[in-house]
Design a protein that fits this description.
The structure holds two protein chains of two kinds. By secondary structure, chain A is α/β, with parallel strands linked by helices. Helices cover 42% and strands 18% of the residues of chain A. In chain A, helix 3 (63-72) links the parallel strand 3 and strand 4 (81-85). Chain A starts with 5 loop residues before the first strand and ends with a helix. Chain B is an alpha+beta fold. Chain B has a six-stranded antiparallel β-sheet with strand order 9-8-13-12-11-10, sandwiched between helices. A five-stranded mixed β-sheet of chain B has the order 4-2-1-7-6, with helices on both faces. Chain B is built from 18 helices and 22 strands. In chain B, a hairpin with a 2-residue loop joins strand 11 and strand 12 (436-446). Chain B is elongated. The chains are: A alpha/beta, B alpha+beta. The interface between A and B is medium-sized, with 23 and 26 residues.
Chain lengths: 125, 722
């Protein structure tokens, strides 16, 4: 059996992160949560998840910085990242980040199951 | 020959003629009586003698008669003799003749009297005429004399006039010079220019004179050059200039007025002169030296502002009082004009200064020579100006260092020139200096005669406006972000409930959850729309047109909305042109928004049943036209004017579909406006029968026109929210 794909959810909003975790775990993934950018880096470099779902607006370190830092890393260069945010699609900072991620989704516009669809797409399932 | 004589002569002739005729007849009779046969010699002789004696008798008779007749005639005519004589004498001009009536018979006496009377009258009238003529002649002669005298007087006057004409010419020329000088002085009070104008004006009057002038540092606060400016229409060499310099120095020494206490004056006085020649002066070392000169000091209240030296190679030129007078007249006029102008300008200046100072915005004004006229304290703060005189260049340079909004880098000096020379106001939307934001306006300044007299730069502090703007944008961003988070929470958890992740649901639970979900989705949409509205309103919407196939875009949208159309029981039809239209510069996201809005409205407000919603794409002369026509409830007349207003929904629309936000059309209009397209609609309010046979509002058609050259790009900061 293939081992479960590890998905790291990075979001400071407890409810949303939890919803994602429940759903993904329910569907056979191994989801874990980081509450801010700092924790994200810590866990990511340690656990090497197969996919990172990154929020932008977070305390301590925001998503954009975290992505930049990840990309500096040997392993981090290649890890697929999907930005999951409630910032609308055209904020300046995210324009740059868009180049480095697989996709950019506005949470309020996406159904949970569609997010899952996207995850599957990235992971090639 | 007198009449008398004529008659006598004629009579004699007639008688003689008769006589001969008679003689002839006698002869003939004789012949008849005595024919030739009967004539013989003796008879012949005696007959001849008889006839001869007959003839002689006749002749004598005739003569006698004749003589008698002539005596008779003479006598007849004798009385008329005096008349004849008188008339003869009269004809010769002698009017003193009278006929002596005493020698005449009674018959002729009356005639003679009459004649004499006539002659007397003639004489009298002649005398009268003579008198009159004499008087007239005398009058005429008198008049002639008067005229002659007047002529003489006139000639005298003309001579006087001639004499003073030369004088007048000179005066006129002076006046001309003064007039043009005054005009020149009016246009600038820059010292060197003023003096130059005076020099040029003087040269008009004295072409051979060399004019040199010096300006003292009367207005300067700093280093001031000590220069002799030389103007000449002829040639000037160093020997000439040396002399002139000597004279000028002497001229200065004569006037203690120049002794001022300021340091720079003292320094200036001690310095040496340098000589600057006007461009037209030709240098010629061989030229003569000046032999006559005149110094004219320019004293503006209590200070020696300058000195003009007039020099000429003509000896005693300036000893001639006439020349000196002319110089004095012109110079005094010029000085007076300058003084008056200076006073006027000073008072204008202080008024201007007060006015400008009272303005909140920063104002800097420059004269036509680009020298700063006034800068209020607000402007000084903005530009961090120190010191009184700041040149236009300095100011523009410090402005150029600030951050200007917009990608294009503008050269401020060019901008200033355009504003002033082409008389066009120039605006910089946002210039950041020292963390303050200013809207900068460069405007030409015209004087009373609408002539350009300089330029002004006005700084309008919009920092607070920018701040508000920023706060608003930030607020909207933050608000929308903050609003979305709990909405996402609701959506996802409801979704999870609905998919049974927390256990089986009964029917009611499903239904209720559905309502919750719908409400939440609606809120999300509203939040998005509000965010877009905010961006559109601040004019910061980014329009990035890219070449797009409009028909493909429409097809895509139709495809996306098919499900919705089915739900409402509508049929979506796309009428596109036969020929494939070329790509058009479109911002796809924005265009999509508009068409999406059109079609969803058409679907929503169609009547229930199999109604058609027709989407058409047409090519017109200058634009492409997208229209969406429905057969639905239409837009009532009273609502038609407000369709594009924010949050407006017509009553019949509200009734039919409670959920709309009223922002869709507003956003569509703003998008079309921002990209230079057009948007409008037609709703004829005719009651037509739909396919179900029911009469309803007549349908509505919405149009969006895109210019063929495409949407206008706009360098906004934000795109639309999805």
């Amino acid at each position: 059996m293939n081992h479960k794909k590890k998905i790291l959810i990075v979001d400071d909003e407890r409810a949303l992160a939890k919803a994602l975790e429940i759903k993904l775990n329910h569907l056979g993934f191994e989801a874990s949560i980081a509450w801010d950018g700092e924790e994200c880096l810590e866990i990511a470099f340690r656990e090497h998840p197969d996919l990172i779902l990154m929020d932008i607006v977070m305390p301590k370190m925001d998503g954009i910085t975290a992505i930049a830092k990840l990309r500096e890393n040997e392993w981090g260069k290649n890890v697929p990242i999907i930005i999951l945010t409630n910032l609308s699609s055209a904020e300046d900072a995210t324009e740059a980040a868009k180049k480095e991620v697989y996709d950019y989704l506005v949470k309020s516009d996406w159904k949970l199951e569609d997010v899952v669809e996207k995850v599957r797409e990235v992971l090639g399932e | 020959m007198s009449l008398r004589r004529k008659i006598i002569f004629s009579l004699v002739l007639i008688i003689l003629l008769f006589g001969f005729v008679a003689f002839g007849m006698a002869l003939f009779c004789f012949n008849d009586l005595f024919p030739a046969e009967e004539r013989n010699g003796a008879f012949a002789v005696s007959a001849l003698t008889s006839s001869f004696w007959l003839g002689f008798l006749i002749l004598t008779t005739i003569l006698g008669v004749g003589i008698f007749l002539s005596f008779l005639i003479n006598k007849l005519f004798k009385p008329l003799g005096p008349f004849e004589e008188a008339v003869e004498k009269m004809s010769q001009g002698d009017l003193n003749v009278r006929v002596d009536e005493n020698q005449l018979s009674n018959d002729l006496k009356k005639l003679a009297q009459a004649f004499n009377l006539m002659v007397t009258n003639v004489v009298k009238s002649r005398e009268a005429v003579d008198k009159k003529v004499g008087l007239q002649v005398a009058e005429i002669q008198e008049k002639e004399r008067e005229i002659e005298e007047q002529q003489k007087a006139t000639i005298n006057i003309l001579e006087d006039v001639n004499n003073s004409q030369e004088e007048l010419k000179l005066r006129y020329k002076e006046l001309d010079v003064i007039k043009s000088l005054t005009q020149e002085l009016g246009s600038t009070l820059e010292e060197v220019t003023v003096m130059k104008n005076i020099a040029l004006a003087m040269q008009d009057l004295f072409p051979e004179v060399v004019i040199s002038f010096v300006i003292t540092p009367i207005l300067a606060e700093e280093k001031f050059p000590k220069i002799i400016h030389v103007h000449s229409l002829g040639k000037v060499g160093s020997p000439y200039l040396k002399k002139v310099e000597k004279w000028i120095i002497a001229g200065f020494e004569k006037f203690p007025l120049y002794l001022k206490k300021q340091k720079y004056w003292q320094k200036w006085i001690k310095a040496n002169f340098s000589i600057e020649m006007d461009q037209h002066v030709r240098k010629d070392e061989e030229s003569k030296i000046p032999l006559s000169h005149l110094n004219f000091p320019i004293v503006i209240p209590n200070t020696l502002a300058g000195l003009i030296n007039f020099s000429s190679t003509v000896p005693n030129f300036f000893e001639n009082q006439k020349n000196v007078d002319v110089v004095n007249v012109i110079m005094e006029n010029a000085i007076q004009t300058i003084e008056r102008l200076k006073i006027l300008i000073t008072s204008e200046h202080s008024r201007l200064h007060d006015l400008v100072e009272s303005m909140k915005n920063g104002v800097v004004m420059f004269g036509p020579n680009r020298r700063m006229i006034v800068a209020n304290s607000s402007a000084k703060k903005v530009l961090n100006l120190r010191g009184k005189n700041c040149s236009l260049e300095n100011i523009l340079n410090s402005m150029q260092k600030g951050k200007m909004e917009g990608a294009k880098k503008i050269n401020l000096m060019d901008l200033y020139d355009i504003a002033v020379q082409e008389s066009r106001l120039q605006r910089i939307e946002s210039l950041e200096i020292d963390r303050h934001f200013y809207e900068v306006v460069i405007t030409p300044v015209n004087d009373l005669q609408e002539e350009i007299s300089g330029g002004a730069i006005i700084f309008h502090d919009i920092t607070h406006l920018k701040e508000i703007d920023r706060m608003k944008t930030e607020f909207v961003s933050v608000a929308s972000h903050q609003l979305r988070t709990p909405l996402t929470s609701i959506n996802w958890y409801v979704e999870m409930l609905q998919s049974g992740d927390a256990g089986e649901l009964n029917k009611n639970q499903k239904v209720f959850l559905d309502e919750i979900y719908k409400g939440s989705v609606r809120m999300v949409k509203l939040v998005n729309e509000l965010l877009n509205v905010s961006r559109l309103e601040t004019g910061r919407l980014r329009v990035s047109p890219k070449p797009t196939y409009l028909d493909e875009l429409i097809e895509d949208i139709i495809h996306e909305l098919e499900a919705m159309a089915n739900k409402y029981g509508c049929e979506l039809i796309f009428k596109k042109p036969k020929k494939r239209l070329p790509k058009i510069a479109l911002d796809e996201m924005l265009m999509r928004q508009v068409i999406h809005n059109f079609i969803t409205n058409a679907i929503r407000y169609s009547s229930v049943g199999k109604d058609k919603v027709t989407v058409s794409l047409l090519e017109q002369v200058d634009e492409y036209l997208v229209s969406v026509a429905d057969q639905g409830i239409g837009i009532p007349k009273e609502a038609q004017g407000k369709i594009f207003q924010k949050f407006f929904r017509a009553d019949n629309a509200r009734k039919k579909e409670g959920e709309g936000s009223g922002i869709g059309m507003y956003i569509s209009k703003m998008i079309m406006d921002a990209s230079m397209g057009r948007i409008w609609f037609e709703s004829p309010n005719r009651k037509i029968k739909n396919t179900k046979g029911k009469s309803e509002g007549g349908g509505t058609t919405f149009y969006a026109a895109i210019p063929k050259k495409g949407m206008l790009a706009h360098e906004g900061e934000r795109g639309l929210a999805t």
